[in-house]
Write a structure and sequence with these properties.
The chain is about 65% helix and about 0% strand. The protein is mainly α. It has one domain.
Length: about 130
Amino acid sequence: MMSAVAITVAALLVASPSITDADRIAANGGFLLGNAQRCGINDKRVTYAGQLIRTLISAAAPDDEAEEEATARLSTFLLVSAEAGPKSDKLVTSCKRVTVELRRLENHRIDLPLTGSSDKKHPESLFRPRDGK
């Protein structure tokens, strides 16, 4: 049942229009992060990638409302993608491919002054596993 719900939610999210670049970054980033978690990739790497994605979303969002919507989209894609599903007929991204894409993201360097982002806007890490949360 959970696998069917996850597939339905993923299909709806993919089918819904991504109006902004921030939405597309969020959808792709959530998919990557969820699969990285599913594949058992080191939490520090996933956290770092999440921080990069949040910075990219912040830089791409035209306003605070768009940033909040994109962040919600990121969370939803992450949760749906992390659902492994025991059935062999479910389409699952290969962990080898996820590792390659995560490495590409980790090598991406963001020039904060050029993006208009600052650490002051998000003083705490917004993508960090919290104790028990």
